[in-house]
Amino acid sequence: MHFIVIGGGLAGLAAATTIQQNGHTFQLLEKDIALGGRVQSSAINGHIIDHGFQVYLPNYQEGKHFFDYPNLKLQSFNPGSMVLYDKGQSDTIGDPLRSPSTLFGTLLSNVGSYSDKIRLLKLKKVAKRYWINPDEIDTSKSTYDFLIDFGFNQKMIDHFFIPFFSGVFFDKKLETSSAMFLFLYGKFATSLASVPSKGMGSLSAQLASALPHENIHLNEEVKSISTKTVQVASGKNYIGDKIILAAPLQGLLSGASQPVHWQSSHTIYFEADKAPHNKKLVGIVAKKNALVNNISVMSNVCKAYAPANKHQIAVSIFGDVYSKDVETKIKTECESWFGKQTSEWKYIKHFHIKNALPNQQQVRFTFDKTACKMGEHIYCAGDYMLNGSIDAALKSGRLAAEFAMKG
Ligand SMILES: Cc1cc2nc3c(=O)[nH]c(=O)nc-3n(C[C@H](O)[C@H](O)[C@H](O)COP(=O)(O)OP(=O)(O)OC[C@H]3O[C@@H](n4cnc5c(N)ncnc54)[C@H](O)[C@@H]3O)c2cc1C
Question: Is the Cβ–Cβ distance between 316 and 325 less than 8 Å?
């Protein structure tokens, strides 16, 4: 069977890999000049710059199946977080997900009560159970409501859960489904957030390297799909027995479901002569109306991210707080935690990803054939079919290809 795969992000690459592993052929069409979609890295002035701050969790089930871990040389953040408060105060906390008793640093010690520690232990068990038997737990609520109903103290929610998970979901109010919260809580609690030593883009590059490059067509934007024929912007037609649509292009299909709603993100990268701190920790901001959501010194986690004697700082902010002079505002805000040196930070690059994560008020962790089959020959894939994660993108691509191969 011959397949046309539309989209060269992780979902499309996973689909093409699955097709190839099963002895079929494919042509992959990608509108961009590079593969990887939302998981790419660029070399800029000696830095490895990911296209938006993101991390890989090595216990992602699909990732274990698709990636060759030793070759990725994963470099890990340490468990825990650096919490950055108002008035320049900061605190390093242990990892509440792994070991609830280590959560409370000096400043947080008056925040989480003893009963919150007990609740964290209970939450860990619930997250584990959820993964074994999802139907047993009511996840109809938002993450925020789930935490309130679980009994967590408001300060604990404001000083830990919101700053940490709002940066993960790109959702300040934690309206994201509690199912996604429990899924990621379980993942963060059992593996360390990591980046490959050559950048997040090596995840996509590794998958692409095992595919015949003559079957991959970059700069080919799909304009229409009709039965077995895909037409690209140049007017050329590609014909396949089956089509895997691994890009959110439902507008091209009749009878398609609702359009996807997206959360946006900004990551601004800086170079510094001196690292603001030497910890392999994500800094999360627990301050009302802050511009910065999280900040990481990437070169502390992986030296290769910055040239010798330089450091790389990744700052994430929410889409709705962006303003023109954002670089200056970030440096001013960060001065309260890291001192005057922030004025010396040199701007490297800004990534604004409009469609960063699908809205996750409802998520899935798997789907059946009817959910992905659109018409006789077309099968849909992409993280938006499940949830906003690398694991979901890979799984959606694999499932779509498997359903399409079975017919
Ligand atoms: C800033 C940021 C941070 C993130 N953080 C994390 C994280 O820490 N951990 C995690 O697990 N996940 C994270 N994610 C989510 C993860 O990156 C995505 O879930 C995953 O990459 C989605 O892959 P995909 O293949 O479904 O979609 P995409 O990567 O968007 O791929 C779709 C592809 O289709 C192509 N395309 C679109 N239209 C056409 C067309 N007309 N013709 C041909 N090609 C077309 C696009 O160019 C693109 O290459 C993050 C995402 C972002 C943006």
Answer: no
- Cβ–ligand 1 distance for 167 under 6 Å, the answer no
CA 165, CA 325: separation in Å to the nearest integer? 26
Q: Rounded CA gap, 64 and 263, in Å?
A: 27
Closest to 43 measured CA to CA, from 276, 330, 292, 312: 312
Beta bridge partners of 321: none
Measured at the alpha carbon of residue 339, what is the angle toward residues 335 and 345, in degrees to the nearest 5?
70
Q: Answer whether 388 contacts ligand 1 (Cβ < 6 A).
A: yes
pLDDT of residue 127: 86
For residue 32 and ligand 1, the question of a CB distance below 6 A is answered with: yes
12 CA: nearest ligand 1 atom: 25
Give every CB contact of residue 87 below 8 A, 6+ residues apart in sequence.
336
For the stretch 57-107, pLDDT in tens is: 999 999 999 999 999 999 999 988 898 999 898 888 777 666 665 555 544
Phi, psi of 354 (to 5 degrees): -65, -45
Residue nearest atom 50 in ligand 1 by C-alpha distance: 54
- Of 164, 190, 216, the position where a domain reaches its end is 190
Given a contact cutoff of 8 angstroms between Cβ atoms, the answer to whether 346 and 270 are in contact is: yes
Q: Are residues 36 and 46 in the same domain?
A: no
* Pocket test residue of 390, 394, 398 for ligand 1, highest count of atoms within 8 A of CB: 390
Say if ligand 1 is within 6 A of residue 230 CB: no
Query: What pLDDT score was predicted for residue 169?
Result: 95
Q: Note the Cα 248 to chain centre separation in Å.
A: 17
- Ligand 1 contact via 201 beta carbon (within 6 Å): no
Rounded mean pLDDT of 376-399?
96
Please work out whether the CB of residue 16 comes within 6 Å of at least one atom of ligand 1.
no
One domain, residues 208 and 287: no
Q: Give distance in angstroms: CA of 9 to centre of ligand 1.
A: 6
Q: In angstroms, rounded to a whole number, what is the distance separating the alpha carbons of residues 249 and 257?
A: 11
Does residue 30's CB lie within 6 angstroms of at least one atom of ligand 1?
Answer: yes
Each residue of 305-354: pLDDT tens digit?
999 999 999 999 976 666 778 999 999 999 999 999 999 999 999 999 99
d(CA 386, CA 218): 26
Question: Range of 233's domain?
Answer: 2-40+200-259+363-406
